[in-house]
Amino acid sequence: MVKAKKHLGQHFLRHEGVALAIVKFLKAERTGNTLEIGPGTGVLTKYLLEREGIDLKVVELDRESVAFLQEHFPALEGKIFSEDFLHMDLSKLGTPLNVIGNFPYNISSQILFKVLEHKDEVPELVGMFQKEVAERVASGPGNRDYGILSVLLQAYYTITYELTVDENVFDPPPKVKSGVIRMIRNDRKELPVDDKFFKTVVKTAFGQRRKTLRNSLRGMMEGKEMPEELSGQRPEQLGVEEFIRLALIIAS
User: DSSP state, 15?
Assistant: First the structure.
């Protein structure tokens, strides 16, 4: 049996019902081409391989897990990539490409940022995260969990929080609950403002979360006038469209 490795953030899911539920959340409506990140011993993998229309590939950094997958899942021959997803060239996998996985908590935000970089190639993501990260990603304006990651991802994806998962279904059990989210690429082709500049505006606004936008973005305005209905607001009160409007005003 493969042993979970702390330095890789491994917590192996052992509950078959939860595994099947996660796989069912993946609709794969735009493409069957799918990448599972961190399959470990294949608790999701076996159900993904049973799905009709799914062309599954997996990426796994742990060599012991890779050997286990090669032995127990012959259908994956030539489709197991023993490397770090964060440094992976996704173009070699074919696009569009769905992404699914029980993600290592220590790199889960980095996984989301990489998916965002490849938003035009990744139409759907289903993933299990630390519960507070999952809630943050799926939260809307006015919610205390709403933040930088929420705005940046929701600009391009429709995100739903699907399931809360208890600690005791993992080996070893993590110290926190987990949450499963589903992200579906929306119809937005691009922002009417530079992506990097938009990210800077959002990060600057949330960098001083308690302040009104009038004060937190004062250094970026440089004599420009912020509309009153925005200036008195705090960042967590603004939706994606309002942040886009704000970025356009600052960039003008």
Answer: -
State the CB neighbour count (10 A cutoff) for residue 222: 7
Please state, in angstroms and rounded to a whole number, the distance separating the CA atoms of residues 239 and 143: 11
What 3-state class would DSSP assign to 93?
helix
CA of 212: how far to CAs of 94, 151, 209, 229, 241, in Å? 44, 17, 8, 11, 18
Are both 175 and 74 inside the same structural domain?
Answer: yes
**Phi, psi at 142, each rounded to 5°:** 90, -10
For 54-92, write each residue's pLDDT tens digit.
999 999 998 999 999 999 999 999 999 999 999 999 999
Q: Tell me the sheet residues that pair with 33.
A: 55
Read off the pTM: 0.93
Q: Are residues 159 and 110 both part of a single domain?
A: yes
Place of tokens 């205390």: 144
Q: How far apart are CA 250 and CA 205, in angstroms?
A: 12
Phi, psi of 184 (to 5 degrees): -120, 125
> With 70 as the cut, is the pLDDT of residue 3 above it?
no
Task: Identify whether 1 is part of a domain.
Answer: no
Confidence check: pLDDT of 5 > 60: no
With contact defined as beta carbons under 8 Å apart, do 200 and 181 qualify? no
Task: Note the pLDDT of residue 10.
Answer: 60
**Tokens, residue 180:** 């499963």
**Is position 190 within any domain?**
no
* Per-residue pLDDT tens digits for 172-194: 778 899 999 999 999 999 999 99
Q: Are 179 and 159 in contact (CB under 8 A)?
A: no
16: enclosing H helix or E strand: helix 16-25
Residue 124's domain spans which residues? 6-185
Q: Name the pairing type of β-strands 157-165 and 178-185.
A: antiparallel
